[in-house]
Amino acid sequence: MVILQSLIIALSMYSKIPLPQVPWTEENTRHVMCFFPIVGVVTGGCVWGAGTLLLRNGCGTLLFAAVMTLLPIMINGGIHMDGLLDTIDALSSYGDRERKLKILKDSHTGAFAVIGACCYFTACLGLWSEVTEGMLPTVACGYVLSRGLSGFAVLTFPSASEKGLARTFKEGTRRLHAAALLIFFVLLPAAVMLTEPLQFGGMAVAGAAGVFLYYRVMSWRKFGGITGDLAGYFLQLCELAVLGCVVTGGLLWKSC
Fold first, then answer.
1. Distance (Å) of CA 181 to CA 92, 141, 149
2. Based on CB atoms within 10 Å of each CB, which residue in 11, 66, 118, 182 is the most buried?
3. Which residues contact 219 (CB under 8 A, 6 or more apart)?
C-alpha cells in the first residue's frame, strides 16, 4: 500500500494525470524518487504515440512541431520549466552563491527567464520540425533517461539548501535501494536507445551524459549543490539535448 501511495504522489506531483489524493506522510513519500521515471514512461509513450499518429496522417510540419513541443509541458504541468527559468535568472545575475540561491526562491520572473523561455521553445519548435518517425523511439526514451538521471542526482549530489522538496525526498528515502532502482531507469532507456540506429541512439546517450556532467560541475561551482529548481533545469536541458542530438545525427547521416 505504501508503494502504491508513493507512486500516486510521484505521478500527481510531477504530472497533470488526475489521481486520487493520498496523505503526504514520511512513510508515503519514502519511495517518490523511485517512481519519478515512471512519469517519463508516460510522457515518452504519449510523445511516441502522438508523433506517430500525426506523421502518419499527413500533419503539417509546423503544426506537428507545435504539438510535440507543447505535449510534454501539458503532461507535466510545466513544473520543470519553472526550475529552468528560475535557474536561468539565477545564473544570469552573476552574483555570489547566496545571491543565486536567493533568486531561485524568488517567485518573480526576471527578464532573463522570459528570454530563456523564448529561446528554449524556439529551439524545441525548430528541432521537432526536423523529426521523422524513425527518431521517435529514441526521443521517447529520453524522457525516462532524463528523469532517471535527475532522480539519481537528487539522491547522490550534495544539496545546496537545508530546505525544499529535493532535500525532503533525499532525507526521507532509503538512498541505496532508490539509487539502485534509478540506475536501472538510466541503464534501461540508454540500452534501448543504443539498439536504435547509432546516429540516433548513440548521439542521444552522449548528449544526455554531457548535460549530466555539466549539471554536476555547474551546480557545485555556482550553487554549492542542487535544489529542486536545478533539478528541473537539468531535466529540461537533458530533454532538449536528446532531441537536438537525435536530429543532428539524422541530418548528418542524411548528408553523408
1. 35, 17, 11
2. 182
3. 157, 160, 225, 226, 230
Q: How many CB atoms lie within 10 A of CB 67?
A: 17
Q: What is the DSSP letter of 19?
A: -
Helix (H, G, I), strand (E, B) or coil at 113: helix
> What is the pTM for the complete model shown?
0.91
Helices (H) and strands (E) in the chain — how many of each? 11, 0
163: confidence class by pLDDT, cuts 50, 70, 90: low
Q: Where along the chain do its domains lie?
A: 2-255
Site of grid cell 535544489: 227
Q: Please, what is the angle between helix 136-156 and helix 165-172, to 10°?
A: 80
- 13 and 36 Cβ atoms separated by less than 8 Å: no
Query: By C-alpha distance, which of 15, 37, 66 is closest to 190?
Result: 37
CA 142, CA 242: separation in Å to the nearest integer? 6
Predicted local confidence at residue 17, as pLDDT: 84
Which residue(s) pair with 159 in the sheet?
A: 226
Distance CA 31, CA 6 (A): 6
* Contact indicator for 151, 226 with CB cutoff of 8 Å: no
Task: Report residue 109 as a C-alpha cell.
Answer: 520572473
> Which has the closest alpha carbon to 176: 32, 10, 27, 34?
34
